[in-house]
Amino acid sequence: MNRRRGVFSMPEEFQTNERLFTKKELATRNTAPTCPGVPIKFSKMVMRKRMLYSEPKAVFFNRQVKLSDMYNDKKNVTYMNQCFLKMQIIGEGSFGVVYKVRCRETNEFYAVKRAKPHINVQDCLAEIENNEKVGHHPNIVKYYMAWQEWSQFHLQLEYCEMSLAMYAKKDSDMSEEMCWNILYDICQALAFLHDKDLLHLDVKPGNILLKQGHFKLADFGLLVDLKKIPEPFRNNAKLTGEAKKEVRNCLSTLSDGDSKYLAAEVLDTVYTTGCDIFGLGITILECSADLDLPEHGPLWHQIRHGILPKEFHKRASLGLQVLIEKMLYFNCTMRPAAQKILSYQYMRELAKRDKKHGRTDFARPFINDNEVHNFIDYYDECFLDNNNTKSVQPHSVLGKKSLQFLNDD
Description:
By secondary structure, the protein is α+β, with helices and mostly antiparallel strands. It has helices spanning 23-28, 44-50, 79-83, 121-134, 164-170, 176-195, 241-250, 273-289, 298-304, 310-315, 318-327, 338-343, 345-357, and strands at residues 57-58, 84-92, 96-103, 109-115, 143-149, 152-158, 162-163, 198-199, 208-211, 214-217, 224-225. It comes from Brassicogethes aeneus (Rape pollen beetle).
C-alpha cells in the first residue's frame, strides 16, 4: 500500500492531530530568551591545585601507542599545551569538549576530545577500546591515540570541518545531491562495521562529520560488538526479561543513544544492523525536510509505523522517498542492509561520478578559518574533580530521482 495515500489502522494512543514542524518554522516563533551563562568561580585553593600537574600516561588496549617526544616532564605545562596549540572549541556535549588543535611537531590539524570529569572511567575506557576495535576506513573518523592527565581522558582524532548537525543549522535547504552523498558515504562506513559484527547504535547528524565534500562516521562510545551477545539472542525480536538482562550484561554500554534517531526495537534490547540503517534513514528524513524530530509521543511512534511527514514527500524525489521508507520499516529484518543499498544502480552511478568529477565541498562556503567560535579560557586546561574521577594506569590495568536506483542489475 502506498504510504502517502494509504489509510493506516494505528493504535489509539499513537493518533494525534499534531504535526511536525520544520526547524525554520520553529525559528520564527516567539521563544523565551535563553538564560545567560554564569561564569565559573574558582577558589584560591582550586587555583593552587591547578598549578600542580600530573604525569600524562598513554592509554591503550591492543594497539600500543606512546606519547610525543616533544613532551618534557620537567616543564610545569600539560601534555596538551606542550604538544598542541589549541585553536578553538568545535564541539561540546554531555561527554566532553572537542578542540581543534595544531600539532606543534608536524603542524597538522587534529581534533582532541577531552572527557568531562564527571564521566565514568569505564565509559571513557570503553570508547578508547571501541576506537581501537573499529580500525581504519575512509568514511570513519580516524583515531590516533588517547592519554590520561589529571584523571581526565583525551582522544586525538582526525580533524573534520564540521558536523552534519552544524551544517544543517547553516543551510536549512539541504540539496538532494548532498543527501545521496551522505547515504553513500555512511553506508560505506556501516557496511565496514557490520562486516565486523559491530553496531554504531548512535547514527545521527551530530555524529556525521564533513571533510572536503566527504562524510565520515564519528563517536563510537555506544559501539556494540555482536560477537559478545550469545548466538541464540542475536537478531531475536522476542526476548524474555531474563534474556534481555543477559544481553545487557554482555555489552559495554547501557545507553541506547539519542531517542530522536532510535529504532523502536532497541527499547526491547534487540540489537541488529537494522538499528544503524534506521538511524541513517531518519537522519536523511530530518535533513532533507529540515524537520524538528520528536523525542517521544504519538509523532515519534507514527514515524516508526511508516507515517512520514508531508514536508518530506514535498521535497524529496520519489526514489529517495522509497529508499527512506524501506530504511524506516518497523520490522528491522525488512530494512535493507548497508551493502544492499550500495548495490543499487543509483549508488553505483554515484560512485562513478565521484571517481570522474570528485565531490562538491559542501562545507566550504560556511568555513571561516580566521573565526574563533569559542574563547578558550586558561582555566579549563586542568579542570580537576577528585570526587568524580580516579587515576587509571595504562595497559596493565586495561588488560590485553526515479525508482531506477532500486534495480540490482
